[in-house]
Design a protein that fits this description.
Blueprint lengths: L4 E2 L34 E8 L2 E6 L5 E5 L10 E3 L5 E16 L2 E15 L14 E7 L2 E6 L18 H5 L7 E6 L7 E5 H8 L13 E3 L2 E6 L4 E7 L2 E8 L2 E4 L8 E4 L3 E6 L5 E5 L10 E6 L6 E7 L2 E6 L5 E5 L11 E7 L7 E8 L4 E4 L2 E6 L7 E7 L3
Protein name: ScyD/ScyE family protein
Organism: Microbacterium elymi
InterPro entries: 6-blade_b-propeller_TolB-like, ScyD/ScyE-like
């Protein structure tokens, strides 16, 4: 299997990178706000648990991947790779939103998916969960990726086919996987392929870590961003997984050290989509130190070096192309996650790239975006249980 390793080096003045904790943000940066503060939008769904990716089906219904609230204290509690104690549960779900003349109807249509989060009674209980991260729906059929953020204990750097955190922590094999199922069925979804197992087998960069967070259809298969492994994967079947792009760390100034003292910063890809030109467009959250204005959207075309498509963004979590060729991006924290403020924004990048402008600001911990007609739909309060929402943003100027 041939793998392209792409080292992206941020130029001076251009955007750079960020990090995912379990699935969204560091534990110190979860939001307590429950409503957007400015812009032309309205709340169309609420009461969601750590809502992440959002998609639109052919009939215009919206589907939201909820990462859930984890589980109670049990034998399936452990310290995850982000350093937070989490407990496993079956609280992750998929919610359907349908519009009518009377407004929006909200219903959880898939439940019982695996979730990891701090348990009840713990600091940050139910926040920043790992669970369903992204979903696609065709009729009654759905595909979803389940976030993970779990590594193996005492594993040295390098490929390790024996790495098995599922058995080690008593976790569902759906965790860290691309799964498929039927809406309304009482049967559990089946695993199409395990992205985490692929990472542990190949581990092309650094120690084993996997956290698949995005999902789009692509050329007879799927594109998936694994924010733990820092890789973009193309999946055609269980045994046909190909790394389209991998991203190495870059050295940046440590903000807590004297000038010249550097620290490695991870790329942390959060979304990968095909553009109208057929090229791959990848957003990055970045790892520590999560610099404000430090996220770039990269254009990757076969046979060419990656090029910055839009710079000066901060902590980008999702992308969506509009029919006019403009690109919409979500910033989970406009000030940068190191600030502890997860007030973010929906941004618009003009056709052919360039400077992004704010479409809707003041959004509390926004994460996923889907476009339909003249509106964008954004998940907010994405790292909190019970207060997650979807907001409808008017794109009409």
């Amino acid at each position: 299997m041939r793998i392209h390793r792409i080292r992206v080096v941020a130029a001076v003045g251009s955007a750079s990178l960020l990090m995912l904790g379990l699935a969204v943000a560091p534990a110190s940066a979860h939001t307590t706000s429950t409503s957007p503060s400015s812009g032309s939008y309205r709340v169309i769904a609420e009461g969601l648990n750590n809502p992440r990716g959002i998609t639109v089906d052919a009939r215009g219904a919206l589907y939201v991947a909820e990462a859930g609230t984890g589980g109670p204290e049990s034998d399936s509690c452990f310290v995850a790779s982000a350093g937070t104690r989490v407990c496993a549960g079956d609280t992750s779900s998929i919610t359907q939103l349908t519009a009518s003349r009377h407004g929006w109807h909200q219903q959880r249509v898939v439940t019982g998916l695996p979730s990891l989060a701090p348990p009840p009674g713990a600091t940050g209980a139910g926040t920043e969960a790992s669970g369903a991260s992204a979903v696609l729906v065709n009729g009654r059929h759905y595909d979803a990726v389940i976030g993970f953020g779990v590594g193996c204990e005492d594993v040295a750097s390098g490929p390790d086919p024996s790495c098995d955190p599922w058995t080690e922590h008593g976790l569902s094999r759906l965790s860290g996987a691309l799964v498929t199922g039927t809406i309304g069925s009482h049967h559990a979804p089946r695993v199409v392929t395990s992205l985490a197992e692929y990472e542990y087998r190949t581990n092309p960069i650094d120690s084993p870590d996997s956290n698949p967070v995005s999902l789009v259809r692509d050329r007879g298969g799927y594109l998936i961003a694994d924010a733990g492994a820092n890789v973009i994967l193309q999946v055609r079947s269980r045994n046909h997984i190909r790394a389209l792009a991998q991203f190495a760390d870059v050295d940046v100034q440590n903000p807590f050290a004297p000038p010249g003292v550097m620290t490695p910063m991870q790329f942390v890809p959060t979304s990968a989509v095909r553009g109208p030109d057929g090229a791959l467009y990848v957003s990055q959250l970045t790892g520590f130190p999560f610099p404000q204005g430090g996220s770039t959207i990269w254009r990757i075309s076969a046979g060419h070096a990656p090029t910055p498509y839009a710079t000066g963004l901060t902590n980008v979590t999702d992308l969506a192309f509009a029919r006019d060729g403009s690109l919409y991006a979500v910033e989970i924290s406009a000030a940068g996650l190191l600030s502890g403020d997860t007030t973010g924004a929906l941004m618009r990048v003009p056709r052919h790239g360039g400077t992004a402008t704010v479409v809707a600001g003041g959004l509390p911990a926004p994460y996923g975006v889907a476009l339909q007609g003249r509106d964008a739909y954004v998940t907010v309060n994405s790292s909190s249980p019970g207060i997650g929402q979807v907001v409808q943003v008017s794109l009409t100027r």
